[in-house]
Amino acid sequence: MSITxxxxxxxxxxxxxxxxxxNDIEAILSVVNTDVDEVTHVVKDNADAIFxxxxxxxxxxxxxxxxKAKTGQWNGSTDxxxxxxxxxxxxxxxxxxxxxxxMEPAQYIGTPVEKWGDKEWLQFGVEQNNWTLSQFLHGExxxxxxxxxxxxxxxxxxxxxYASTQVVDEARHVEVFGRYLDTKLSGxxxxxxxxxxxxxxxxxxxxxxxxxLGMQVMVEGLALAAFGFQQQLTSEPLLKQLLRYVMSDEARHVxxxxxxxxxxxxxxxxxxxxxxxxxAFEAAVRMRDRFLSQEVxxxxxxxxxxxxxxxxxxPTRVMFQQMLxxxxxxxxxxxxxxxxxxxxxxHRFEEMNVxxxxxxxxxxxxxxxxxxxxxxxxxxxxxVPVAGQ
Length: 389
What we know:
- By secondary structure, the protein is mostly helical.
- The chain has a domain at 116-381: Ferritin (Up-down Bundle), CATH 1.20.1260.
- The chain has 16 helices and no strands.
- The chain has helices at residues 13-17, 25-29, 60-71, 88-99, 118-153, 157-184, 193-204, 208-233, 237-265, 270-290, 294-299, 304-313, 315-323, 328-334, 340-351, 363-366.
């Protein structure tokens, strides 16, 4: 028997997700942004601000990360080539010439998409580009708020110091993604409803370690992989450098979460760990759902219900979405989340077809490779999926 006397039974899909099957299209599409024009969104923050009078160097690994953060700062206004001219259609066309549309055309026979020609697919790529950068922007603001909350709520001095540097990092990320969208692309999208719900839950939870798990490990872990794909794909020099700089910060952020939570989770009961396992699974499904880009299909005049079942089965999209979890799964394993409680989270990740990444390098060890002065290539990471391969 493990730490507790009685085995812990995890919640069902219906209890966690509001649906029995993770690929239930009707349920996925029922989650909508009810006010796309809102400017201010209020979420109740149920956390205590904690002072600590212990200023000793108790966690050298976090102090090392803090020193790395201080030397890794960059200026979004002066360190990026903002005078670069960006022809968005040309950039998208080059990507599509390299990897296709990102989907298998044969999957869409019998739907309105079957009649699309190069013009429609190019416009879809442009809208997808606008949508992707918009979600990056919204996610970075979520990280800004969550890291400010960590400064308040984490009881460790060394963690407060590091988290303060991440607040600066996240403000810089919001700045540069917002500026890129405003000056180089052709439109904004509101926050995706699935991402919004996840950010609301992370901010709303009173437990400081849940802020770490939700933002540092899950959201930032997926973002690190997504930024890596985008950075590999684009030939546009401004975005390529912007993403490279952001990734150097994001790798430290994920490492901060893994290094901090490892200490905490090693001492938790099975019931406490089950709460974290369930939250990690719920976060993973929500992040996967938001990458279905239903807002883009809407803007292109296509009913998402007509195509999303095919998107979920599209082999190229499936591969891409699986690779987005290449940072999350090994970090969850490092934290002991995969195998506690009769391997509950392992089985959930098997259901999502992402467990194959469990033995990849975790970010607590890998983050130094992303530093701006590192010798590793800037686009190191999993290969971008190519349609038909």
